[in-house]
Design a protein that fits this description.
167 residues; alpha+beta; NADH Oxidase; four-stranded antiparallel beta sheet; 6 helices; 15% strand; globular
């Protein structure tokens, strides 16, 4: 599959089949995240793989949508700001690096027929508690990971003329 076709094929999946994920496929999407570029190659992140079976109630505390825990796996992308590169003006690149790695994970999942949905709408304090995150590790984003059980919806995107400026 060509890259632009892959990007066009990706969508936010909001219904998942209960089919288990092959460990090799899970490793593939995690490897894609590991290979993502990061500022100064610091890789200030961790990915937590949560098997959803038996944890549905806990996961609903993180994001109260039935489909969130419907996939066999939920992944939490965490940042470690103390390990990130910091620009000369003090800008910490942790969140940027986590976002790039998460995007690699999402596109890799799409490429092998799995679905994801980037979730940022959660209470970080509850996430820290439910996941027992150590100090210094921040939850940045979640995604269910599984096989889609819903069709893609039409996406609204701004035209390039609104997003790109030439100087």
């Amino acid at each position: 599959m060509e890259f632009l076709e892959l990007v066009q094929k990706r969508y936010s999946v909001r219904a998942y089949k209960p089919d288990p994920i092959d460990e090799k496929k899970l490793e593939q999407v995690l490897e894609a995240a590991r290979l993502a570029p990061t500022a100064a190659n610091k890789q200030p992140f961790q990915f937590l793989v949560i098997r959803t079976a038996g944890k549905e109630a806990e996961l609903r505390r993180l994001y109260d949508r039935a489909w969130f825990a419907q996939a066999p796996v939920v992944i939490c992308a965490c940042g470690i700001p103390a390990q990130a590169w910091v620009r000369m003006d003090g800008k910490n690149y942790c969140d940027v690096d986590v976002a790039i790695a998460m995007d690699h994970l999402v596109l890799a999942a799409t490429a092998i027929g799995m679905g994801t949905c980037w979730i940022a709408n959660f209470n970080p304090a509850i996430a820290r508690q439910v996941l027992a995150l150590p100090s210094g590790v921040e939850p940045i984003a979640f995604t269910p990971l599984g096989y889609p059980d819903d069709p893609p919806r039409p996406r609204k995107r701004k035209p390039l003329t609104e997003l790109v400026k030439y100087r």
